[in-house]
Amino acid sequence: MNVIRKCYIPGAMFGPFSFINVSSAKEVLDDEDGMKNMVEIAVVFQIIQLLRKECARSKHKISMAVLSQHPAQVKCMQQKLENYQQNNEFFKVRVGYVDDYQHGEADVVIISTVGADEDECSEANTISNYTNVYSTWARHCLWILGDESMHMKGGSIWKCLIFEAKTKGCFFHADESKELAKAICEVKKDLHQLDELFSGESKLFQNTTWKVLFSSMFRTSFSKIESLETKKLVFLMLLKLSSGWRPKGSSTAASISKSSYFELMKEFKVKGLHLICTIDIMKETHYTQILKVWDILPFHEIAGLVTRLERIFGMYTREYIDRCKERCVQRGQEYKEFPMKWLATSEIIQYKTNANRNDEMFMDGANGTGCIENVKVRESLILMKFYSLSTRAVNAVIYGCDGGDLGIPFELTEQEKDVVSFNKSSFILGRLTCGGDSSSQSGLTHIDEIDEMMLSEDIPDQFVNLPQDVYPLIITFHRFLLMLDGTVGTSYFERFPSIRRLIYGNKTSTERLKVLEQFMRAKEVTYERFCSAYWPHFNNKLTKKLDPSTVYTEIMSVIKGGLVTDKAPDVILFNDDYVALCDGRISIFDDQKREIIYSIFLQYEIRKVENGDFDLADFVNDLHQRLEVEGYKGDIMDYVYVDEVQDLSMRQIMLFKYVCTNVHEGFAFSGDTAQAIAKGIAFRFEDIRCMFFKKFLSGSEKGNISKIFQLSENFRTHAGVLNLAQSVINLLCHFFPLFVDALRPETSQINGDLPILLETDENNNAIKFIFEGDGFCSQPITGFGAEQVVLVRDESLKEKVVNIVGKNALVLTIMESKGLEFQDVLLYDFFTTSSFSNEWRIIYKYMKDMDLLDSPFATLCSSFDMQKHAVLCTELKQLYVAITRARQRLWICESTGFSEPIYDYWKKLSLVEVKHLSGSFADNMHIPSSKPEWRSRGIKLFHENNFRMAQMCFSKAGDKHYEKLAEAYHLRAIGGDARVLKDAAELFSSIGKKVLAAECFYDIEDYETAGYIYKGESMFEKAGNCFHLARCYKLAVEEYEKARAFVKCLSACTDGQLFDIGFNRLGLWGECGGDELKSFLHKGARYYFLKKDFTNMMKFVRSFSEKDKMRSFLTKRRCFDELIFLEEEWENFKEAAKVMHKGACYYYSIKDFENMMKFVRSFSEKDKMRSFLTKRRCFDELIFLEEE
């Protein structure tokens, strides 16, 4: 390009030569004059405006030519130029045709390429010819406008020019310029071409002036807008607001204009709806003002939202409000506002000091003070999630929004950002703030994800050469163990004969994992299995004063799962080492109790081996031993995040050190030891930190161990529930200070109802009353909704309750509910079914110590004994978990008086209300749910593998397909019985899940049926695996061949003795594996040898890869004739003579003189024959030869 450099508009886009991509601009066919593109025209005239401003500023003359090949485009630009401005002596613009401008010249030339894709680039030098001509027209700047995607499809001349522009760094996108991007927005709005604005390639949301956040409440309201065009206009408004644009003289609702905080609130109208926004402040590298979009409402609902916002603003500090009020404006032809920024050197405090009261034992929120809001948790503005405005977010909301969660990240609090940005390995401890379905289930909106989750074919079974697209790898701890097992040495499960054949028959990673997971379900000794299948068989003298939970915990967490020390270096503690722990800091039991527990442990181990069972500690210890001996050879992880770490033993946690060497900054452990209700686990979070110090860090790294982060602000429930939960924590910390972490009480900015203790009439079953009524009501029972649950202690009570409530309520055990949340929780018979029973009276001792006990109860006190009351620790943790499942309402109902001590404790602290269970009260407990809500809950439960309750949810949602799917999964999960699994298979088949049906048949070892199903689904390799296991070897070969799994073809031919078929098809199978082929040929030769079919044997022998192997095979089997034939064929006559001699010697040794003479006669010389026979005194044979 011979264009003289001169810059009129700042930026590389407006240099001497540019191709400016105006993407997704629709070309329109004019009835008379051909193609025109209004978006390109808008961009052209925005550039004209910029040049005109520059001309007015500099007082320099600028001439400009705008050219196109299409009459419609030229005509439209000419009309727009006439309406837009008049030329003057400083600034002149000419619009015309390319062909008419052959000898023209201007300072700036713009060429619009609309419709130019029809022009073929017929010669290699065509592009050079065109650009050379165009450059002679432009004195200083040549700018070509067009749609890259349109030109790249065909063979237009512009395709070549685009390549040249990209090579020279002269290719730009129009929306990279704020001015051009705004012009594109406006014209597309007028042309109803908004789709392109929100495409994944759009850059309009990048580099905006304001950071705009929209709330989940806005998203819910937005989902109710029916018009797609209105939805797009809403986000177009947000886009304009993010640029700093503000409407002039807009009317404001009276509720806003009369508010004391009107300067913090903004209202913008879109198609009869009102966007309600506020100015807020966010801390990143500095403090900056942001725009928060709270909701989009009809006019009559604005006042209600304003009132709620005023309550929040009332808790702001004066400084914070003043900062929000500050404005940086640009006045003139267009009014704009810019966000204020401040250095982060000094903190800007948002809430007044009495809003949060971390230093007190309980919040005042349950009594209506000390909290910002007094609303339902789900309606809280304080707990509202906000999402950053982006192309991805806009598309998710417009096209995928049904009011559910988005698959995009929400904004974090300052404390959360501090944790995320912390640059060392960290320990994150929180009571309720970590986890829960309110924040972690963002991927559960769409029902189709169930199929994607359950039918994934690319589940890795080891940490070797994992593809990059699997990261971040999100797996359960059980899956982590199985992948580690597949990475290091020989699998732990190879020791179980029943599993070897199944693993062998399933070579794909997905199949192997499914086989192992099924085996673990059947043979792992969980706590439930320990209680049912082991505990009753132990010596009663040993178990009578012990609780099974306590013993199981000691075995799994201490004897087999504790830290290995120098004093006790073995994986499993010996009796003396275990008993010696009675002198330790955190010991519960004395030496006598430990002797008894160890005796039970020995009985348990013997019985476990006899049953062919294993427990997780066995598996984990085997992994440790293999890793120590063989080392870890899998992929090294950069970062490892372990959630719910309180559910893992120390030995289990130590496994993570092998997969990540980035010890200094690569680990994050989060959880809450108050929620450690997994049986067999017992420790404090501080213990994890100490273990990390001792076992993960080494040398100089030990000075870099991080502190523990505590997340104390609660976003999930209200003060009433939190205070009750804190009362349980106080009991735990008092009685078991070494088994739970003492933390600051959690805080919530929401007030809520006190939890309720339900009292019933004598002999009145509360569950029947709530879900069946009193017998006098003619109205049908509504039942609980999808956000309500009945929680019980164990499966036994769950079965009883389910039999009563049927489909009128979700019923879960406390363990099943862990990680889930519900608006309302009914905790039923927790104390009635407690093994602690009358020992709950120990709480009176605590009340006495805290001066909470009235004199009439003083005689009820008993002294605390760590051994006697050890089970209380687990009981309190379970109670804590149950209480904290509630977000709004919590009811506690008991059948017996075991709960009286803790009831008295709560009443004394005014943490609960006591209500009589009447018919009207029971009716008010029931909150019906919509079908989408039931479906959403069903998906969450399905992901938790709670298929039975998920089935009920899908039934309530009227979704027959997924109701059957959940039922089938439930039947498969309970398994064990072939009839049950067959029923599951039939259900899977009835809803078109043939593959899952095949897996069920596989589980019951009906491999042939499974094979035919896989065959019908064209899953040939799986079909081959099944036929192979079913010993239908010919069918297996056919399916393997279709799958081109030729190595497996050889294996099936070998196992089925189909050597002839395999040998004849070797040419078709090509190079099908070295060792497998060698094995096939060797076994084939041996097979025919045993059948005395030496002709076919020699076919296989001749296919051996080496002559020495042929010699070895034939020699070992005394096939001397065949070997001699081969040697002579190879012209190895000396070797042939040696074989003859060996043959003669062999037959002589077995006194077979007839065959011996056959070989002697083959000797090459008579003297050799005489010598052989003479040495062996075979005189008769020698005489015969001499006479002959």
Automatic annotation (TrEMBL):
Entry-linked Pfam families: AAA_12, UvrD-helicase, UvrD_C
Limits of the DNA2/NAM7 helicase-like C-terminal domain: 14-148
Keyword Magnesium appears in the UniProt entry: no
Residue intervals of the UvrD-like helicase ATP-binding domain: 590-677
InterPro entries associated with the record: DNA2/NAM7-like_C (IPR041679), DNA_helicase_UvrD-like_C (IPR014017), P-loop_NTPase (IPR027417), TRANK1 (IPR039904), UvrD-like_ATP-bd (IPR014016)
Assigned keywords, A-Z: ATP-binding, Helicase, Hydrolase, Nucleotide-binding
UniProt KW Nucleotide-binding keyword: yes
Protein name: UvrD-like helicase ATP-binding domain-containing protein
Record domain UvrD-like helicase C-terminal: where: 804-893
GO MF entries: ATP binding; helicase activity; hydrolase activity
